[in-house]
Write a structure and sequence with these properties.
Length: about 260
């Protein structure tokens, strides 16, 4: 494993609670080869911009969006193979796919205030990204490690969580507390559409099957995901198909039970 390059910002100011890294993926371009099964327009940065955020981060075709404290120390690393160290010493950790057509990335802010130069990755195309975060006395410290991979993308996987996947509910909160986990479930479905089980999703996202069930309900109520098959329990197979968000003003059916599900 060789460290190819780094970029570091010790005084990153997150706008609207967001850490943003951008690469490039041309709008409307579909996938070929091992990416042909992906709906790449739904992996665009703005596809689900109006939804909830992951507790840690999500990534897609040319973008990474992290949930950050107002002040952060951010380090980006480009590797030619998986880095040797894992998630030890970090409170939150996630591995996720990332796509770039140009082979470079840039730390930026929500309004486009970019870092002064790009970090060159090993090559263009599919990468694996490890997102590491921990709390500091004045905000967050982040490490984002990119390395190239071949074949079909492996969906996101949490390696560490500093708090439960679903927060304790408060009065009047409804199902909103499932929003962050729901976006993690959606990320798995976007990178690996098709058959899953709640038990496998829970293991991948460091959640419980019951929490995943409610996250799926959150997504289906909002028309962001179609779930096929009867959920007879955590190990039964269901099909996940991401849906394009409805435009404002278009109603979305909100059944109490969006698909046939077991009560466990």
């Amino acid at each position: 494993m060789t460290l190819l390059g780094t970029y570091e910002d010790g005084d990153y100011r997150a706008e609207f609670g967001a850490l943003v890294v951008r690469g490039f993926w041309p709008a409307g371009v579909g996938g070929t080869g091992e990416l042909r099964h992906l709906n790449l327009p739904l992996l665009a940065e703005d596809a689900f911009a109006g939804g909830a955020r992951s507790d840690l981060a999500r990534a897609g075709a040319g973008w990474v969006l992290g949930t950050a404290a107002p002040h952060a120390h951010v380090r980006l690393e480009a590797h030619d193979a998986p880095p040797g160290r894992g998630s030890g010493g970090w409170s939150d950790a996630l591995d996720t796919p990332f796509l770039t057509s140009r082979g470079d990335i840039k730390l930026t802010r929500g309004r486009g205030d970019d870092s002064p130069w790009n970090l060159k990755l090993a090559r263009a195309g599919l990468h694996r990204l490890r997102v590491l975060r921990r709390r500091t006395s004045d905000g967050h410290r982040w490490l984002l490690q990119f390395w190239p991979v071949a074949g079909s993308p492996e969906p996101p996987r949490f390696l560490a969580r500093s708090r439960p996947a679903v927060a304790t509910g408060g009065p009047g909160q409804g199902d909103k507390r499932y929003g962050p986990l729901a976006m993690d479930v959606l990320s798995v479905a976007l990178w690996s559409p098709g058959r899953h089980t709640r038990a496998a999703l829970a293991d991948r996202l460091m959640a419980t099957p019951e929490q995943v069930r409610e996250a799926l309900r959150y997504l289906t109520r909002r028309g962001l995901l179609r779930v096929g098959g009867a959920d007879a329990g955590p190990t039964s197979t269901i099909a996940l198909v991401p849906e394009r968000p409805r435009p404002p003003g278009v109603s979305v059916p909100s059944p109490a039970r969006p698909w046939s599900t077991a009560a466990r």
